[in-house]
């Protein structure tokens, strides 16, 4: 088991800066996810680590071993890096049986024949494909093919597993099942893993660390709950989950238990302290599930209550999705135990100060 260190990686394709000086570390045995929209540089980063792409700058270490360095002119060929890679398209050989697809990496590495059969069986067992070694890929379901690709990457006991959107070709139900299965496999085998996805729920479920990428750069790096509960900026708050953004101005800092007071329209909301100074514009990020909607006005003087008008109410079974307006700004809320409200009705939305993140900025700055 090894850690992976990526330092100041840069990759350009002509005018396009696909990877713009990113650095991160995957601790031994952990799963780190590169999460971001299409085109943000996830695959390019993974391909540089795998050795399929030559970086313009930066270093990659696996454990103590320098496998790629633009400054020191080191470029270990892909097949000598001992990394297992799984591609979005699986990349199985259709003319080879499952067993031979999995054995391929071992044959390439000149593993003695006597050891290959056992290793292949173990790898197939790990991904719950025991007994299917004689089939051809076309005789397997999409999920099973994906597992063959994973077995093929694990069979030679790589130091690191690299997974590029491995679940995105599966239908929704199977994808959810495979997510948990893959996470269990990773935890049990303890293999250091870099996982690439554009799906924020997948990233939440699977990761020890999430690296949120945008336009070749890192916007935030942290645990799933860090990234979700304390988004570093508007991009992260908007990309990871649904967020409401309210524009306001900081009127006081260090209120109560170190909270910040932000004036939004006619109301002043208390938020988590965020290092935004008094007098500056602030953008508040609030998750719909952290808002409590009620038809009754709370007692006079209750803090953090916004009186809103219902624009639209969508009945969704367990919750009522409410699209609201207040002081010219839009808020989306999940209502519980409410009747189906008409457009134009009034509701009172209460928000715990600990659930409001103040981010510097706002469109008027
Ligand atoms: N071989 C290539 N030639 C030219 N441009 C490329 C090449 N590979 C990737 N790019 C560009 O680099 C950027 C990042 O691509 P990629 O790493 O594939 O993003 P992601 O995997 O996050 O969708 C995109 O703008 C893409 O068009
Ligand atoms: Mg990609």
Structure description:
By secondary structure, the protein is α+β, with helices and mostly antiparallel strands. The protein has two domains: 234 residues, P-loop containing nucleotide triphosphate hydrolases (Rossmann fold); 119 residues, Beta Barrel (OB fold (Dihydrolipoamide Acetyltransferase, E2P)), CATH 2.40.50. 23% of the residues lie in helices and 37% in strands. The strands form four sheets. The protein has a six-stranded mixed β-sheet, sandwiched between helices. Helix 2 crosses helix 3 and helix 2 packs parallel to helix 4. The radius of gyration is 25 Å and the shape is elongated. The site of magnesium ion (MG) has 2 residues, from helix 1. The site of adenosine-5'-diphosphate (ADP) has 11 residues, from strand 2 and helix 1.
List keywords for this structure.
365 residues; alpha+beta; Rossmann fold; OB fold (Dihydrolipoamide Acetyltransferase, E2P); 2 domains; 6-stranded mixed β-sheet; 5-stranded antiparallel β-sheet; 8 helices; 21 strands; 37% strand; elongated; binds adenosine-5'-diphosphate; binds magnesium ion
Q: Poorly predicted ranges (pLDDT <50, ≥5 residues)?
A: none
Q: Nearest-angstrom radius of gyration?
A: 25 Å
Number of domains: 2
Instruction: Tell me, rounded to a whole number, the average pLDDT.
Output: 92
The separation of the N and C termini measures 48 Å
SSE-based structural type: alpha+beta
DSSP summary: helix tally = 8
- The CATH architecture of the largest domain comes to 3-Layer(aba) Sandwich
CATH fold label of the largest domain: Rossmann fold
| Neighbour order of strands in the largest sheet | 7-8-9-3-10-11
As a percent range, the share of strand residues is 35-45%
Biggest sheet, open or closed, and with what strands and sense? 6 strands, mixed
């Amino acid at each position: 088991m090894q850690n992976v260190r990526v330092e100041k990686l840069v990759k350009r394709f002509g005018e396009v800066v696909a990877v713009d000086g990113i650095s991160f570390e995957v601790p031994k045995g952990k799963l780190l996810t590169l999460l971001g929209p299409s085109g943000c540089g996830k695959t390019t980063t993974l391909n540089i680590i795998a050795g399929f792409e030559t970086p313009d700058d930066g270093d990659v270490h696996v454990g103590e071993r320098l496998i790629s360095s633009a400054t020191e002119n080191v470029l270990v060929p892909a097949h000598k890096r001992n990394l297992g890679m799984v591609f979005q398209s699986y990349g199985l050989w259709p003319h080879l049986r499952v067993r031979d697809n999995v054995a391929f990496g071992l044959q390439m590495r000149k593993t003695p024949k006597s050891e290959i059969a056992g290793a292949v069986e173990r790898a197939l067992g790990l991904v719950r494909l025991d007994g299917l070694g004689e089939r051809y890929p076309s005789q397997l379901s999409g999920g099973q093919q994906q597992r063959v690709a994973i077995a093929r990457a694990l069979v030679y006991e790589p130091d690191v597993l690299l997974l590029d959107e491995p679940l995105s070709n599966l239908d929704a139900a199977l994808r959810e099942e495979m997510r948990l299965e893959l996470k269990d496999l990773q935890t049990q085998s303890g293999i250091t893993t870099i996982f690439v996805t554009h799906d924020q729920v997948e990233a939440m479920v699977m990761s020890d660390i999430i690296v949120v990428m945008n336009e070749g750069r890192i916007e935030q790096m942290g645990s799933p709950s860090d990234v979700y509960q304390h988004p570093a900026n508007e991009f992260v708050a908007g990309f990871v989950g649904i967020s409401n953004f309210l524009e306001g101005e900081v009127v006081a800092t260090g209120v109560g238990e170190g909270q910040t007071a932000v004036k939004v329209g006619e109301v002043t909301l208390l938020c988590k302290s965020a290092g935004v100074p008094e007098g500056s514009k602030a953008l508040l990020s609030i998750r719909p599930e952290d808002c409590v909607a009620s038809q009754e006005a709370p007692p006079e003087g209750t803090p953090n209550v916004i009186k809103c008008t219902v624009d639209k109410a969508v009945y969704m079974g367990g919750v009522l999705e409410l699209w609201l307006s207040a002081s010219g700004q839009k808020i989306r809320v999940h209502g519980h135990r409410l009747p189906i409200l008409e457009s134009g009705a009034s509701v009172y939305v209460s928000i715990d100060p600990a659930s409001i993140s103040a981010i510097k900025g706002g469109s008027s700055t």
